[in-house]
Amino acid sequence: MITKDIHYIGVNDHAIDLFEGQYIVPNGMAYNSYVIVDEKIAVLDTVDARFGEEWLKNLEGVLGGRTPDYLIVQHMEPDHSSNIVRLMNTYPEAVVVSSDKSFPMMKQFFGEDFSSRRLAIKDGDTLCLGTHTLTFVAAPMVHWPEVMVTYDSADKVLFSADGFGKFGALDVEEDWACEARRYYFGIVGKYGAQVQKLLARAAALDIRMICPLHGPVLSENLGYYLNLYNIWSSYGVESEGIVIAYTSVYGNTGKAVELLRDELVRLGCKKVAVNDLARCDRAEAVEDAFRYGTVVLATTTYNGDIFPFMRDFLHELTERGFQKKKIALIENGTWAPVAAKKMRGMLEGSRELTFAEHTVTIRSGLTDANRQEITELACELLAE
Ligand code: FEO
Predict the structure, then answer these.
(1) pLDDT digits (tens, 9 = 90+) for 188-240
(2) Dist CA 214 CA 80 (whole Å)
(3) DSSP-assigned letter for residue 133
(4) Confidence of residue 300 (pLDDT cuts 50, 70, 90)
(5) Is the confidence at residue 343, as pLDDT, over 80?
(6) Which DSSP helix (H) or strand (E) runs through 167?
(7) Is residue 1 situated within a structural domain?
(8) How much distance in Å is there from the Cα of 380 to the middle of ligand 1?
């Protein structure tokens, strides 16, 4: 039970290997769903396809013999929408409530758009359940176009769809920010402007509790979570420190990275995060690149371009609106080093990047001159 009338009926998924077919989730995933029991009963969102049975049992346990009047669909991505048809078949009196962009998606996914049992709502519409009046707020591209969030003015609860979600099942204790940040930048990172708009709308509401579709219900210290979301969606610097993302073929670029890390630490840098792009979880490397203000990129020249892991990484950054960073480049190339130029070229469309004056060029193995350049680069990066 979340409040006297709001109940949790979500599920934990520990069987999933990759969330959205790409993100490792070592602590599983939660698909949240809620029920508001009032004069009318509203269910908010369903769960992943594999958990329909368990979810309906959870729902039944809350209903106490009554039947739901409304199924509110805030988001049509299948981790939340896959049991719409099942609920509507189980409870033939229920009406599905969603934004008008959702119904064509329902038809596309499930071959059914409930034309005779639906209530299409738009931004600002309300739905009265008795004591609880729900206000719907359109949140397009947070993180699909049909998304809306729902505010309950009676209990002062914001049902935030994917917003404020995280990886990880709810029966595992783990740090919120770590897995919320990886989730945010992986899944919603491109849509900072849209998240900013939603935060501005949320600022006008008296919110005591946030109920997302993944991760725990947030009921204390909401300023902490709102502040992080503001930093993330405005591409601000969350943590002091420097991140180094690199690839190395025979270890020489790796040695340059070690040397730079040691120099940065020696010179007093509080945090140096190092990610070997061939071996780390790419989503961790992506969140680090957005988290810190200075990003060092080190890679080898490869087929007249840059090493594939670095190319993919830079693509993942730029497609998510990477911006407002200081960038330093280290390149390696035995006969025609072009990696620095190529990396810079890939970042050309990114806004508000400044590049360090020192770019280090290694031609195979580190030289004394390279070591000196790395020391100078470390000094430059810590000078501001
Ligand atoms: Fe959790 Fe965008 O679905």
Answers:
(1) 999 999 999 999 999 999 999 999 999 999 999 999 999 999 999 999 999 99
(2) 10
(3) E
(4) very high
(5) yes
(6) none
(7) no
(8) 41
Ligand 1 atom nearest residue 213's Cα: 1
- Is residue 269 one of the residues assigned to a domain? yes
* Helix 339-346 / helix 308-318 crossing angle, nearest 10 deg: 20
Taking the C-alpha atoms of residue 48 and residue 83, their distance in angstroms, rounded to an integer, is 7
| Cα(97)–Cα(330) distance, integer angstroms | 53
Closest ligand 1 atom to Cα of 165: 1
User: What's the 16 CA to ligand 1 centre distance in angstroms?
Assistant: 15
Residue that terminates a domain, selected from 170, 203, 233: 233
pLDDT in tens, 21-44: 999 999 999 999 999 999 999 999
Shared-domain flag, residues 161 and 248 = no
Enclosing domain of residue 37: 6-233
Instruction: With cut-offs at 50, 70 and 90, classify the pLDDT of residue 143.
Output: confident
pLDDT exceeds cutoff 80 at 384: no
The residue among 233, 262, 294 that closes a domain is 233
Copy the structure tokens of residue 225: 């979570």
pLDDT at residue 320 tops 90: yes
* Smallest CA separation from ligand 1 atom 1, residue: 162
CA 223 / ligand 1 centre spacing (Å): 23
Cα of 188 from ligand 1 centre, angstroms: 9
Ligand 1 atom closest to Cα of 20? Answer: 3
Distances (CA, A) of 221 to 2, 165, 208, 231, 382: 16, 16, 9, 16, 33
The minimum-distance atom of ligand 1 relative to the CA of 162 is: 1
Same domain for 228 and 254, yes or no, is no
d(CA 381, CA 289): 15
What burial letters (b/e) apply to 114-127, b meaning 16+ CB within 10 Å? beeebeebeeebeb
* Ligand 1 centroid to residue 20 C-alpha, Å: 9
Say how far apart CA 219 and CA 260 lie, in whole Å: 42
Q: How far is the CA of 147 from the centre of ligand 1 (A)?
A: 10
Mean pLDDT of 311-318: 98
Question: Relative to the CA of 77, which ligand 1 atom is closest?
Answer: 3
